[in-house]
Amino acid sequence: MFLTEFFGLFSLSAFLMWGFLMAFFFNVFVYTLDVKRRTTLLLSSFIMMVSYTLSDYFFTWLSIQNTLYLDWALYDFATISALLFAYICIKNTTPSFFYLILGLSINSIFFLGMYLDMYIYKNQTPWFFWDVYTFTVNLIDLTMVIALIVDRDFLGIHKLKKFTSQLFMKSSKL
Question: How many domains is the chain built from?
Answer without folding.
Answer: 1
